[in-house]
């Protein structure tokens, strides 16, 4: 996909393409939304009520920020410190918005609702599309699937509480990583992309012991931003 703006009046999607996008979006939604069980259980174990836990998933709706907040509270930190940490991690969504606003070309209430489901998965599933209808469909179905399933899973995890045990026992932590790998893999079609991906992964792994949870993602994103700036002027096939 190039950086050229897409035509909002592009021809409608074929039934086969539409079904393929919806199927992939639902698969990502299931893989990601299931980890909401882990958040619900961890949040209640950290001392938040079921209502507070569900409100976080419903209103904040960004997993890294939610886990960061309850992590600070569980460690004995002030709720304000947890909120500031969550806000820091959520700044990446602002960058997503700058990219997605011209791509989706929504206005009014559609744009406001879209902002609520502007997350890693819905963004990644949209930016690879070659038309506005395809980008909108991928964004809507991925964001909607993750939102519904994440909130339902949060309720289940919060009600189960400590009885659920460590979410890693059920492999839910691996589900999120697998979903991100599935989103990333189609983008690694050139040597440049593979080098950027490998460097970003190395930086993220290197800072894991040094920074709070979620910050390694921002560090990896920083690598991608620098690489994007350095790639200006390169031929499209080399970027």
Give a description of the structure.
There is one protein chain. The longest helix has 29 residues, at 132-160. The protein has helices at residues 15-33, 36-45, 50-60, 63-74, 79-89, 91-104, 108-116, 120-127, 132-160, 172-184, 191-207, 215-230. The chain has two domains: 15-184, no CATH class; 188-239. It is globular, with a radius of gyration of 18 Å. The relative contact order is 0.16. It contains twelve helices and no strands. The chain has 239 residues and is mainly α.
In short:
The chain has 239 residues and is mainly α. Helix content is 71%, strand content 0%. The protein has helices at 15-33, 36-45, 50-60, 63-74, 79-89, 91-104, 108-116, 120-127, 132-160, 172-184, 191-207, 215-230.
How are the elements arranged and paired?
Layout: H1 15-33, H2 36-45, H3 50-60, H4 63-74, H5 79-89, H6 91-104, H7 108-116, H8 120-127, H9 132-160, H10 172-184, H11 191-207, H12 215-230
Helix pairs in contact: 1-9, 1-10, 2-3, 2-4, 2-9, 3-9, 4-5, 6-8, 8-9, 11-12
Total count of helical runs of at least 4 residues: 12
Sheet having the most strands: none
Rounded average pLDDT:
80
Count of all domains: 2
**Which segments are poorly predicted (pLDDT under 50) over 5 or more consecutive residues?**
none
Q: Estimate the global geometry from the Cα principal axes.
A: globular
Radius of gyration: 18 Å
- Helix content bin: over 70%
Secondary-structure element series: HHHHHHHHHHHH
End-to-end distance: 11 Å
Number of strands: 0
What amount of the residues lies in strands?
under 5%
Secondary-structure class:
mainly alpha
